[in-house]
Specification:
With 180 residues, the protein is an alpha+beta fold. It contains three helices and seven strands, in the order βββββββααα. The protein starts with a strand and ends with a helix.
Length: 180
């Protein structure tokens, strides 16, 4: 568990931590959820997860990920990244499989770390303002410019923050590789 990078996004200073190790144990699990409504109609959803133990000389971490996110097998070298904001650790932010060269990004953690306060609310507001702007195009094209510009600005700023975090983590991988 070493600090491998640092990025400032908005008012947040995010310290990027990493743990690199070998996958020593894996387990596959399947969750089946069946819901039946009052009319007797049922829906079933199935989720597949990989749980693996990542170990090195200084410790180990147990990580559970969706099978669709990344494939990991016993004996592979994997690095897990997370952020620390004001001394508080986040959930897993990203995984990198050194043997396959594949990344797995955990969107909820990325959005929470990179996003401005009330990130989800801002996106919802941007969508409504954008829809209002599109409708305003039919009435008065000049009046539509401001709502469309505001919507575009919100989306652009949120994406820029996410990209800054992902770039910092990708850059931190270089530090991890040099330490190995």
């Amino acid at each position: 568990m070493a600090s491998v990078g640092n990025v400032r996004i908005g008012r947040k200073n995010i310290e990027i931590q990493a743990f690199t190790g070998e996958v020593t144990d894996t387990a596959h699990s399947t969750y089946v959820n069946t819901t039946t409504n009052q009319n007797g109609y049922s829906t079933t959803s199935t989720s597949h997860y990989n749980k693996f133990l990542l170990s090195n000389g200084s410790g180990s971490h147990s990580i559970e990920v969706s099978e669709r996110v990344i494939n990991i097998s016993r004996g592979q070298k994997v690095t897990g990244f997370w952020g620390v904001v004001r001394g508080k650790d986040s959930d897993w932010l990203a995984l990198f499989n050194h043997d396959t060269g594949k990344w797995a990004w955990f969107r909820p953690t990325r959005d929470k770390l990179a996003g401005p306060p009330m990130n989800q609310l801002l996106i919802i507001i941007a969508v409504f303002v954008g829809v209002f702007g599109v409708f305003a195009l039919f009435g008065s094209p000049a009046a539509a410019i401001i709502p469309l510009a505001i919507s575009g600005l919100i989306f652009w700023r949120v994406q820029r923050r996410r990209k800054a975090l992902m770039t910092a983590v990708t850059t931190a991988l270089t530090t991890v590789r040099m330490e190995a």
